[in-house]
Structure formats: C-alpha cells, structure tokens
Design brief:
The protein is mostly helical and 160 residues long. Helices cover 72% and strands 0% of the residues. It is built from five helices and no strands. The radius of gyration is 18 Å and the shape is globular.
C-alpha cells in the first residue's frame, strides 16, 4: 500500500521547476557583483533544497542525497564567506555532483513513468534545465584552469 503521507511528484517537480526558472528569469537582469553573486548563492540554495526534496523521496538515494545536499550547501556558502580557490572549486564540484544526482533521479522517474502527465512533463523540463546548469558549472571550472577550453590552439590566418 502506498504511503498516503507522501508528497505527490508534481509538487516536488513544480518546486524544482520554479527554483530552476529563477536562473533564467532573475539572473540575467541583475547588475554585476556583488548583487549577482548574492542572488546566485540564494538561487543555488533554493535549488539545493528543491533537489533534496526530489531526491529525498527515493528511499535508496535519500541516505546519500540528504548529507550530500547539506555538505554542498555548506561548501557553497563557505566559498562565499571564506574566499579561496580550493574551497570555491570544491563547492562548485559538489554542486555539479548534486545536480547530476538530481538529474539521474529525474531520468529514473521518467523511465518508470507509465503515462504522460503534469509530473512527467515537469520532470523532463527540469532534467533538461539541470543538464544545462551542470554543463555551465563544468565549463566554468574548466575555463578557470584552461585559458581557451574549446580552442584548437591554432592561430587563425585571417586574424593577423
């Protein structure tokens, strides 16, 4: 018998969807630092809470996901309070890992879904947005270490 106290998937996915939409709607219209950094931190916090809510419903992933969410949240905030490259990259990496885990949970939900409904549509949209955010975080980390991550190193003949 299913748990009658369980939150419907559509509520969890709606919360995640709305938190992900903050990136798209709010972030581009903000002025530069320090306001942008503060809002980015707040948006990541909301997304981590929503992602933990989605992951917490899976009995197998909850023992891993909830501590990972707490550690990720702590590292993201610590990177803001105590500047340093090691803490910043650790926070970004944990954030990417947490987002990948959330994306995997969304894909697993979609694979197991028997019919298309509002929850499956929200899960699929959230999955696509999470993939884009993970890519942006990974690109940001690579861009810090490699000057031109997508260049071949060859010089354009027309540029000289």
């Amino acid at each position: 018998m299913p748990n009658s106290n369980a939150t419907p998937p559509s509520r969890r996915f709606t919360a995640l969807f709305l938190s992900l939409m903050l990136y798209i709607v709010v972030y581009p219209v903000l002025p530069e630092a320090p306001v942008r950094g503060t809002v980015f931190l707040a948006v990541n916090t909301v997304i981590i809470f929503a992602g933990a809510w989605v992951l917490g419903q899976n009995a197998k992933l909850a023992p891993i996901a909830i501590p990972l969410a707490v550690i990720t949240l702590a590292m993201v905030w610590l990177a803001t309070l105590v500047p340093g490259p090691a803490i910043e990259y650790t926070g970004r990496t944990l954030l990417a890992v947490f987002f990948v885990l959330t994306t995997v949970q969304l894909v697993l939900y979609l694979v197991r879904a028997r019919s298309a409904n509002m929850a499956t549509v929200l899960a699929s949209v959230c999955g696509y947005l999470m993939i884009a955010i993970v890519y942006a975080i990974a690109y940001g980390i690579v861009d810090e270490f490699v000057l031109a991550p997508f260049s071949s190193g060859m010089v354009d003949a027309d540029a000289s």
